[in-house]
Write a structure and sequence with these properties.
Number of helices: 10
Number of strands: 10
Shape: elongated
Order of helices and strands: HHHHHEEEEEHHEEHEEEHH
Strand content: 15-25%
Largest sheet: 5 strands, antiparallel
Structural class: alpha+beta
Radius of gyration: 21 Å
Strand order of the largest sheet: 1-6-10-3-2
Length: 258
Amino acid sequence: MIKLKDLLKEVKRKQRKSGFDYGDQLFTDPNTDSVANTSKFKKFLKKWQSIEEPNTEDENEFLDDLRSYTDESIPGNIAKVLKILAPLKSKFPGILDPTKSTNVTKFVYRGTTIPINLIDNTSFKDVEDNLEFNITVNIKSKGNRGFLSFSTSVGPAYEFATQFGDIESNMKEIVKKELIPAIICLPISDSNLIGNPDFIINFSPFDLEQETFYLGSELTAKKILIPKDVLDLISDNLEVATPEYKTIYNNIISKTKS
């Protein structure tokens, strides 16, 4: 008969082999200096009936990397650890599964720019402040980080797409490059997404971002949003646009007015 201590030794052996030791629980130390709001984090742990346990050195290093990324976009070893943690999503859903977020949503969002010719002659739906296109878009991680960040809210993705208020001064260059600001939509159930935003937000200085991660350096999405106010800004810079760009833009505008 296998003894409990022997089972624990085997667990520890497998963790060392994987390159990430998390003890018996995953990130359940409410007293780590990395937690911005200890009382809020304790409430989160209670919700998931997590047993409090001091973090291992590996856990603390990852949380330091997480804070550096959410605060200063320094990726550290996040991709490496996420790859190790991915098989544990069902074991620690409160920590790792984005579908467990309290911000109920069907999609997660990422702001970027895409070539305008991707939406040429494509039908779309007029949805509140955005035009919704069902198209295939390939996006890559800048610097080949090994992961891409998404938000469960459209708002933060819009801010990234419009460069946090700098889009007006930069729109001329965006038009010259034949690009258009867009919001990439990805189903929150995508198997490559990892990280419950309710957990990650405890280690971020930005309370509204509601961030989760896509494991991999590139992905293919099949839905995007184009903010309507972006179209107004483009119209002020069409003098630098190519004939093709103008044609696609005017086609979109004509359809929104029909």
